[in-house]
Write a structure and sequence with these properties.
heterodimer, A: alpha/beta, Aldehyde Dehydrogenase, Chain A, domain 1, 5-stranded parallel β-sheet, 10 strands, B: alpha/beta, Aldehyde Dehydrogenase, Chain A, domain 2, 2 domains, 7-stranded mixed β-sheet, 6-stranded mixed β-sheet, about 40% helix, globular
């Protein structure tokens, strides 16, 4: 009989897989209550490291052409497809779903990447504008990314809700610091392995596993984070995040599990440029 | 040669200011329940213009009730096309009474009649006209097929463009089917109260627009009233953050237009004379009481001397004085409190080592005045380079490379506006792309239009006003 080689579940920061600098980990159990893994319990320092990495990546990702970003998001879908089995077995273990239910979730998640991939180079067409102002001026408005967005993944679908959070953030040209679903963190870590092999520049997505209740206040009060998708937070923690986030007027939003360009636009700013017309 | 101008004062016979004003609630002027009156003065001569009511909790409650009733019974049931007609009517009446509004605004605010006549009032009318046409086309506003209004909107506006800010707020709110409780700034309530008469002349249904005057305490009552579904605020970042905190735990929607410290970037190849005009317009327009003012001049080092020489010459021609004189360029500072703030910050500039320059100009004895001023030898750490002065004070900073210009321009928690001056098209777009600012003026500055979205990045606010983007902020989509 062969003994399985089990995976060590670590953080994903700057394209690498470190343990928490704090040395902390926590136990997660499968749906039947059996021990599953010891993922890292991210600390405040891990978050700060992630923000430094994200800020560096934000400039690069924003300047990557929309077409190129679109191809990279599509590449994520391609690589996920190849690892579908692994996602399915982790979802079965974590969530206690049947194989066909788990498979359906993985397929939906892959298709969601494809959908958001297509938005990268269309969002500005649909939601930008040329504005017919009085006077001899050319005037246009374009949506631009905010920069660094914290994404709290939650919900009952460990993988799908994660992609609902991350994909629109990347499609808009933002970078994501993902706070994995604390009860179902395995999908997030395996997704990190997909990111690491999908031509996604290092730091565009950083993934922290740990306790939302602990991480939330640090994310909310970090002055170099520009926006937060709090969809995965319970409403009490979400309101406390809104409060702390006012220190730098973070854009903080919460969504139901819908796929919508609204989720891309939530973390974009409209810039309007004027120029005189003349000879 | 004598270049003196003869005075060309605008007559004030056209305005009829009442000695005291009540609140406008449910379509009528009604006395306050327990509110005291406070003086509203002309900042150019400190004469008392009228007595304004300090709205109380009971007043705000009545106004929200009136707005709720108007929303439920009339405004939300009316077709967009019919709603739009009221906005068209308001636009037309503002045009008909434009001169009266211009004179009143100049007296109440201290800004030159030239600006109220040519900018504030025509733009206010244009905002109503523009948004009137949206009222029956909301399904095209980009927020889904069946967009809905929020309900009752609480709106709090500043004193720098009193009627124009009212128009920016009220026009999109009404076009989208919301009803309004508006509070003008305590130093500039008169044009809002005259606007109430316009609503009456337009036969706008009672309660659709309610105007409750008062200071920040009244504003706080509006923000915290449970019957208000959305808040739109224009003012300081400090107060904006307080409002953002106070809506936590509620379902109230919130848009904020806050402060700025706009960089006006001058590259070495800029057309110098046009640029000087742009710099003047960027910081001395409206006494510098402009949230999007180009208050930091970032000039490429090798043209600094030439630019400053021309700027000094041009500044010497700025005419400071009687706001009602049609030749006046720079009027009165809006209040004693604001003058104190400007003086304090300008003094800090000198104390921190910057060099101050103002042209020779005689200021009137009465009223609140501050000469057009710039500072050189300004470091990025100086308060005058970081804090919003909201007065006619420019901080001059130099740069050597385009990247350095971007770095310095973005080195602020604000992100409202920026300017770019260069003859090179590709450099304009390169620079515009990298500036973290909601409005970028290239080879122009301080231009506004109802069709053009306005609003800030970072700590300059949430959301946009104007254009489709501004309209969308008054609608709830399907998400």
């Amino acid at each position: 009989m062969r003994i399985d080689v089990k995976k060590t579940y670590k953080l994903f920061i700057g394209g690498e897989f470190p343990r928490s600098e704090s040395g902390r980990s926590y136990e997660v159990y499968d749906a039947k209550g059996n021990f599953l893994a010891n993922p890292a319990l991210a600390s405040r320092k891990d978050l700060r490291d992630a923000v430094v990495s994200s800020r560096g990546a934000a400039e690069k990702w924003e300047k990557t052409s929309a077409f190129n970003r679109s191809q990279i998001l599509y590449r994520v879908a391609e690589v996920m497809q190849g690892r579908a089995e692994q996602f399915v077995s982790e979802i079965i273990a974590q969530e206690g779903l049947t194989k066909s239910q788990a498979k359906k979730q993985v397929e939906k998640a892959i298709d969601l990447w494809v959908w958001y991939s297509g938005w990268c180079d269309k969002i500005a067409t649909i939601y930008g504008a040329t504005n017919p102002v009085s006077g001899s001026f050319y005037n246009f408005t374009i949506p631009e990314p905010l920069g660094v967005v914290g994404v709290f993944a939650g919900g009952k679908d460990s993988l799908l809700d994660l992609v609902h959070g991350i994909a629109p953030v990347l499609a808009g040209g933002n970078v994501a610091i993902t706070l994995a679903n604390q009860n179902f963190p395995l999908s997030a870590i395996t997704l990190s392995e997909v990111f690491a092999t999908s031509d996604l520049p290092a730091g565009v997505v950083n993934v922290l596993t740990g306790k939302h209740s602990e991480l939330a206040s640090w994310v909310a009060s970090h002055m170099d984070i520009d926006g937060i998708d709090g969809s995965g937070l319970d409403s009490q923690v979400y309101e406390s995040v809104r409060l702390a986030g006012t220190d730098n007027l973070k854009r903080i939003k919460k969504f139901s599990s819908t796929q919508s360009p609204e989720r891309i636009l939530a973390f974009m700013e409209s810039k309007t440029v004027w120029h005189p017309i003349g000879i | 040669m004598n270049f003196e101008y003869s005075p060309a004062p605008e007559s004030i016979a056209i305005v009829d200011i009442k000695p005291e004003y009540n609140l406008f609630i449910g379509g009528k002027f009604v006395p306050s329940k327990g509110g005291k009156r406070f003086e509203s003065i002309n900042p150019a001569n400190e004469e008392v213009l009228s007595h304004i009511t300090q709205g109380t909790s009971a007043d705000v409650d009545r106004a929200v009730k009136a707005a709720t009733e108007a929303y439920k019974k009339i405004w939300s049931k009316m077709s967009g096309a019919e709603r739009g007609k009221y906005l068209f009517r308001i636009a037309r009446i503002l045009q008909e009474r434009a001169r009266e509004f211009a004179v009143l605004e100049s007296m109440d605010n201290g800004k030159p009649i030239r600006e109220t006549r040519d900018t504030d009032i025509p733009l206010a009318a244009a905002h109503f006209f523009y948004h009137a046409g949206w009222a029956d086309k909301l399904e095209y506003a980009g927020v889904g097929e069946k967009p809905k209004p929020h309900g009752v909107v609480g709106q709090i506006i500043p004193w720098n463009f009193p009627l124009l800010m009212l128009a920016w707020k009220v026009a999109p709110a009404l076009a989208t089917g919301n009803t309004v409780v508006l509070k003008p700034a305590e130093t500039t309530s008169l044009t809002a109260l005259l606007f109430a008469e316009v609503c009456q002349q337009a036969e706008l249904p009672s309660g659709v627009v309610n105007i409750v005057t008062g200071d920040g305490k009244t504003g706080e009552l509006i923000v915290n009233h449970p019957g208000v579904n959305k808040i739109a605020f224009t003012g300081s970042t400090e107060v904006g953050k307080l409002i953002a905190r106070s809506v936590v735990g509620t379902k109230k929607a919130l848009t904020l237009e806050l402060g700025g410290k706009g960089a006006n970037i001058i590259f070495e190849d800029a057309p110098i004379d046009e640029t000087v005009e742009g710099v003047i317009n960027g910081i001395y327009f409206n006494q510098g009481h402009v949230c999007c003012a180009g208050s930091r001049l970032l000039v490429q080092e090798n043209i600094k001397e030439e630019l400053l020489e021309k700027l000094k010459r041009r500044m010497s021609m700025i005419r400071v004085g009687d706001p009602l004189d049609k030749n006046t360029d720079l009027g009165a500072i809006n209040s004693r409190a604001q003058l104190t703030k400007i003086r304090e910050l300008a003094d800090s500039g000198e104390a921190e080592g910057a060099q101050r320059w103002s042209p020779e100009c005689s200021l009137p004895n009465k009223g609140f005045w501050f000469p057009p001023t710039f500072f050189t030898s300004v470091s990025q750490a100086h308060r005058i380079a970081r804090e919003e002065i909201f007065g006619p004070v420019l901080s001059v900073i130099t740069f050597r490379t385009p990247s350095e210009a971007i770095e310095k321009a973005n080195n602020t928690p604000y992100g409202l506006s920026a300017g770019i001056w260069t003859d090179k098209g590709s450099r304009i777009l390169w620079t515009a792309q990298r500036l973290k600012a909601g409005v970028v003026w290239a080879n122009t500055f301080n231009k506004f239009d109802p069709a053009s979205p306005f609003g800030g990045y970072k700590e300059s606010g949430w959301g946009r006003e104007g254009g489709r983007h501004g309209l969308a902020a008054y609608l709830r989509g399907e998400h």
